[in-house]
Amino acid sequence: MMLEKEIKAQLSQYLDLLEGDIQIKVSAGTDKVSEEMLALVNEISDMSDKISVEKADLPKTPSFSVNRVGEDTGVTFAGIPLGHEFTSLVLALLQVSGRAPKVEQSVIDQIKNIEGEYHFDSYISLTCHNCPDVVQALNLMSILNPNISHTMIDGGAFKEEVESKNIMAVPTVYLNGEEFSSGRMSIEEILENMGSGLDASELNEKEPYDVLVVGGGPAGASAAIYAARKGIRTGIVADRFGGQVMDTLGIENFISNTYTEGPKLMASVEAHVNEYDIDVMKQQRAQRLEKKDFVELELENGAVLKSKSIILSTGARWRNVGVPGEQEFKNKGVAYCPHCDGPLFEGKDVAVIGGGNSGVEAAIDLAGIVKHVTVLEFLPELKADAVLQDRLHSLPNVTVIKNAQTTEITGDETVNGISYKDRETEEEHHIELAGVFVQIGLVPNTDWLGDTVERNRMGEIVVDSHGATTLPGVFAAGDCTTNPYKQIIISMGSGATAALGAFDYLIRN
Fold first, then answer.
1. Which of 76, 120, 256, 257 has the smallest CB count inside 10 Å?
2. Does 473 count as an annotated binding residue?
3. Does some domain include residue 162?
């Protein structure tokens, strides 16, 4: 039996929702992965009389495809889609059977209108919480458009292929044999990269908003909900919905929820936003802000949106170390997400730069996968919580080096080492390794604002107790501001404050 009792009970409920018959075609060998894959497929088919299984000769072994009877849908899983990918399998079964996907009609229309032949391969790891977004988007595109097909490839089951292609970050997507993208992407981003995104002219024609929120993380979502509840015209413009939280795995300090995961939390937040009449414009980046009769927001595609008030909630991004080799070897051994990319370094030596909570948590997680972890901390002491430091020091395959200033990440095609200087002795050292995980804090996404609003030396937007900036009608919330303590719950609170501040401003003006 492949599935645990609890998961099987859950799956049984989903399979009751199947609308049409499904044919699973299986290509299996005599290896262990093939055996487990066959067991999973047979177990699922035994649970529903709408699912049949037949052997087939697919391009990859082990793999299986999920089809309508008599029609190939182009949805293939190479490996065993358990772990974070189990949801991808369930959705594929439901959508192939005819259940309508939960995406906007405009996105469905964009997918159906794509012409030309497109075959996608996505390389994933089952512990990657970013990968399912990409897998599910490409599966949906394959189901909706007969010109598109997609194979999810578990890097753990196809190690030789992954190594021959030098894939050191997941998800990595190939399109028609050429590398297409690396990292989390929404369905809107994939369409944009294929040249099928929203047109600037559509955005230019939008009526002015009462409140326009820039950014779709916890602060932006909270601000939009609070504004919409006041009955005023509200819009959100965001590069991707969910922000940094989409890259956060375990969340144990979100009050009322003892444990959740970033993507799961933001999926429920997005569902909450969609309950209101909020105009959500994804896959759009702001590039200029100007106060005229309205506050005008110019986007990178040239479109200009107008609003009586604006809330900036653009969040923050991982801070770069800024040493030679970091950019050159990004996704080729330099990584920022231990949960996603850790499994690709199984049995190898890696380093973590940073001794705060995120750095020490990363080192603890990686120690369970890789051969050896070296933690490099710039300061004389680690900054992580005591409970995390105790756990770290109990691990036999971790070395902690303090007072270490990283000077270079070295490599040829991929990373082969890291150089650092001992800040006490000034001695230079070099460690041979295969991967470097950078965990040294955050930088606010505010460079595009220039001097339109006051920012401090770290680039954070200066706000008052109502979330107001130095530009009338412009408010800010979350990690891009001077609000202390960068936490999800604090961002949500500051989003609510900024929305109420903006509403108050609109009443008075």
1. 256
2. yes
3. yes
